[in-house]
Amino acid sequence: MDSVSRRFGDVRAVQDVSLTVPEGTVLGMIGPSGSGKTTIIRMLTGTLGPTEGRLSVLGQVPLEFTRQARERIAYMPQLFSLYPDLTAAENMNFVAALFGVPWWERSKLIKRGLGVVDLWDARHRPARDLSGGMQRRLELACALVHNPRVLFIDEPTAGIDPLLRESIWDELRRLRDEGATLLVTTQYVGEAIYCDRVALLAEGELIGLDEPEALRRSAFGGEVLEINTLSVVDAEVLKRVDGVREVRQVTGRQLIAVTDDAGTTSPRIMDALRAANVEVREIEEYQASFDDMFTTLVTRHREARQTTDEEIAAREAVA
Amino acid sequence: MTGVLKSLIRVTSFVGKELRELRRRPGVIATLVLGPLLVMLLFGIGYEGQRRPFTADIVLPEGSSMPTDPAFYQDMTEDRMSIQEVGTDKEAALARLRAQDVAVVVVAPADAEARMRAGEQSTIEVYWNEVDPLDDGLARLAMQIMVGELNQEIIRRAAAEGITVANAELGEPVTLDPNVIAEPTTAKETNVAPTAPATIAFFGPAVFALVLQHLAITLTALSLVRERLTGQMDRYRVSPLNSAELLIGKYVAYALFSLAVSALVGGAMVGWLGVPNLGGWPILVGIVLLLTFASLGLGILISLIADSERQAVQLSMLVLLASVFFSGFVLPVDDFIPAVRPVAYALPVTHGIATLQEAMLRGEVSSVWMLGALAGIGILLYIIALVRLRRLMHRVD
């Protein structure tokens, strides 16, 4: 995607998004509801055109996909759109045939697909009788049935219990290991850990794109250390330590320090504390949750945007 | 694998999917197929094929020589009227008419025989109280028959008296029968049609055509609308499926289903209800296929313009309503003014009813152009549906 924007009337659904998904990787697109994830997927699958910018999937413009290209693509919509009167196996059979899979290959693929999403025992049940979570899993199995090379999966784990979520991500990564390229949207920020790269979206804008750990680091401006001491310590002691960017006092005996590199800065922090006669109980790398990371990045994005808006307004007022 | 084979796989996937879905909805099928059949059966059992006689009072002039026995006049009406009372009080009879106790009052002229001898016409007054235009027409017919019979009776009586007078005055034998004077000719009725079907047999092919059209329209209209509303169309748009494969898949599935329904309904009509099938099964199947083809096009077109399932059902019902009025099912198409007839001929069922009735009841289809019209409607609707569906599937919002 190169500087892609999409408007619906006056609403900016996607704003100047540029990203590339390397072949054989899982890109997680994470953002709250209304952040533009589904719009991006629809543009990439060729069901929606961009207002500005260029898109390319498998070397083709999505709106002009050839049939051969379409056979290599899978799309799992956000809402359940299968046939309620057909059984789980019949739904899969239909979708497989839709992608041109001959009948003699289908039973094996259906068995594997339903097995992956743990629905083999429910294969004869009409889709309408499946629970919401089972229907999502069936949607996923249908999307995977024709062995696609590029998968666009819109919120595959919504409404699914944590254990099954993990097994679905295992399957997505297995597909990745077999060479497939996946673009997966999710509202669960914690699922970033399952992705090779993560694109963070807020209000239609891309506010972060990197590997999950790098993104976490960039959210806090470096690697974070949690320092617990046996006696009361003043944060000022660490502010002069080389490699420490920021120190926050959590309690009298607990500090959080943002460093350039946790490995090289830890010994210096130990030395500084000893020099101040403070006995250290433990220093360990602080694993901020992806939720914290996301909140931090979104807040920073909103503040920056507000500042920009205020500057523009001020300039206009002066003019 | 070749593209043609993959196309075939996609088309057959729709055929299989549609037929499986139909199999899972026995209630809908029962309503659509058995419902009209049962209505037809009830209609055949309950409808006598003739309107009940109009109730009538006869008013005679005071001192008339005409009989006062209702049975005498009853014979004149050919059972189109049921004579209630014969009397001389005209006002009382008209009061009964206004109160709708009787449908017709016939007032005989006071001096009919004398005026006839004087070479003058008499007037029979007839009053009725009817707002239904069909009944109004039937009442007029019944009255014309009865007035004709009354005229003949008056002539018969006058002639008999005249012959008696002539015999007495001239003394010459007269062999002229008064019945010949009153009714010089009589009709000998012969219907040369190959069958004389009962009401149920006559309406059977029409109901059959209407069931087939309604079934095809309703099922296809709902099928595509549902797919559009549930987001299934997005899956189609991402997949290698094209509009023609989708349409052909739907057409083939519903054509197979219609053939199965036709076998069921047609078999029941011929074998159980005794509707003749003089043309034989091949021509019947041919008409059914053409009618189904044209009706599916109409259903798919509805599904492509309807915004919701409710609107699709409403449009299907509108077509059904138009079909009942304009198709010749109840009222002959020729009874409409020429400007309105195109509406009738635009409906597949109009041609379906006419050709099925001809094939089944006469043994051949004389209106071959109607078969061509069915094919033409089908092809035109297929092209329109294909263009519309292609736009829908390739639409870029």
List how many beta strands of chain B DSSP finds.
Answer: 4
What form of chain B results from the Cα inertia axes?
elongated
Spans of at least 5 consecutive residues with low confidence of chain B: none
Instruction: Quickly count the helices of chain B.
Output: 15
Biggest β-sheet strands, sense, barrel of chain B = 4 strands, mixed
Characterise the protein shown here.
The complex is a heterodimer of chains A (319) and B (397). Chain A is an alpha/beta fold and 319 residues long. Chain A has helices spanning 37-44, 67-71, 88-98, 103-116, 132-144, 162-177, 212-220, 236-239, 262-275, 290-318, and strands at residues 2-8, 11-17, 26-30, 52-54, 73-76, 150-154, 181-186, 197-202, 205-210, 223-229, 244-251, 254-259, 280-285. Helices cover 39% and strands 24% of the residues of chain A. The radius of gyration of chain A is 24 Å and the shape is globular. The mean pLDDT of chain A is 88. Chain B is mainly alpha-helical. Helix content of chain B is 66%, strand content 5%. Chain B has helices at residues 3-23, 26-46, 70-74, 90-98, 112-117, 133-170, 178-182, 199-229, 232-238, 243-272, 281-305, 309-326, 341-346, 348-362, 368-393, and strands at residues 54-59, 81-87, 104-107, 125-128. Chain B is elongated, with a radius of gyration of 31 Å. The model of chain B has no long low-confidence stretch (mean pLDDT 83). Classes of the chains: A alpha/beta (319), B mainly alpha (397).
Helix and strand arrangement:
The complex is a heterodimer of chains A (319) and B (397).
Chain A: E1 2-8, E2 11-17, E3 26-30, H1 37-44, E4 52-54, H2 67-71, E5 73-76, H3 88-98, H4 103-116, H5 132-144, E6 150-154, H6 162-177, E7 181-186, E8 197-202, E9 205-210, H7 212-220, E10 223-229, H8 236-239, E11 244-251, E12 254-259, H9 262-275, E13 280-285, H10 290-318
Chain B: H1 3-23, H2 26-46, E1 54-59, H3 70-74, E2 81-87, H4 90-98, E3 104-107, H5 112-117, E4 125-128, H6 133-170, H7 178-182, H8 199-229, H9 232-238, H10 243-272, H11 281-305, H12 309-326, H13 341-346, H14 348-362, H15 368-393
Parallel strand pairs in B: 1-2, 1-3
Antiparallel strand pairs in B: 3-4
Helix pairs in contact in B: 1-10, 2-8, 8-10, 8-11, 8-12, 8-14, 10-11, 11-12, 11-14, 11-15, 14-15
